[in-house]
Amino acid sequence: MGARDSLTQRLLSLLFMTTVVCSAVAAYNVGPIPVPWAGHVLAIGGTVLLVLRTFRTPLLPGAGMFLFWGALLATTTVVQSMVHRYAGLMPELATTPYPIFLTLRFFNLLGFIFTAALTAWFIHRFGRQRMIRATTGIGAFFAFFALYVYAAQLLGLPEPPRSRLGTNGGEQAIQFDYAFHRALGSFREPSHLAEWLLVPFVLSFVSSDRQMIVRRLVMGLVLLLTGSLTGILSVLAGFGAALVFSPTNLGARLMTAFKLGVVGVAPYAVFQLLVKSNDSNSVSLFQVILDRVMPLIFGGGLKASNRGYVYEFVDAVPPPFWGHGIGNCNLVFSDYMGVPFITSMQSLYVNTLYAAGYPGLMMLVVAVAIPLVPLYTRPLSGIDPRHILLGLAGYFGWLVVFAVHAEELSVGFAIAYAFVATLLIDRQPVSAASNVPSPVN
């Protein structure tokens, strides 16, 4: 490899890690630009550099369907915007004009596609184990930062000023009506921090060396301190689905389930100590979760949750067969709600239904299913079973998040998607990771 190629590869690896870092700095702007958007620019630039320098990255299973899905969204949006006057629905607290608002929705979609491509290249070039080390290292760094911010908010210590508007279009909140003070870190909401930690936390179970144990502990602790029902249950559901549906040996899966339970004790114990030290009343995380889960099970399902307004809208305003177009559906929803800011539909599936109609929703389901099919139809020899199990846990976990909280494809899911989609393309056998300590402990 020439010196120029070597320099380019170093630059690409730096772009990958910087993209992940930018996705975590969600509460801050650089001038008028949110830092995560800058991360999308880096991912797009890195992938373009891949093409220009002809560093080949394999076409990921499902990538074609995601591209067709994006094309359908674009076509529907253009046609519907020409036929209907959605611009007149822009609320008074909207931060961008209508054309820019729509453009940014597609920009986020491009960010997902190019981040997945950059992640696949990083795995192909440097190996899955190095990708895990990089991702969990970044996750642990921002978990430590979240602990500092947590302490700073309680003790009156300085923290970086939050320069981005809150999710409701106003100033960011740092106090929330909850049973205990919630970790917020570098995000605008505790639930966003929990969702971002999902993939790094899951991947930290790949080995039991001291460094990875520390990373796992701090990320697990911060995940609990967010108090996010979505974040905590998505981790549990992701691991649960992976343990049930993983094509690996049943005995190994059962042993992994036992070890996961043991590992979860330490973060919970530290959580209880921290929460008690800041509150005169004893707080049980299990009770907090039960108080929120039981009404969902016995009191009307998701309609009884704090997302109930979304499903009331679904009942009251059926989606057009072809949808309103990306972004336009949020304007229709905000107009229905009568709020002065653009409202999230809190679900990728609901958003897709109203953006691209029933054809778009079907295409999305097919796109997320395609990477899973080869794991059940092709031989898995030469693939580390830990990578299969943990990749599926992160993948399924994000599918849960998309059901109840996130309406757009994310950097976290791009990493999980690339990780799973490359398992059979870039087979990296157990022997190649023989220097890695024993699996999940």
TrEMBL record:
Keywords linked to the UniProt accession: Membrane, Transmembrane, Transmembrane helix
Domain of life: Bacteria
Parts of the chain that traverse the membrane: 37-55, 67-87, 99-123, 135-155, 217-245, 257-275, 353-375
Coiled coil regions, renumbered to chain: none
UniProt protein name: O-Antigen ligase
Organism field: Maioricimonas rarisocia
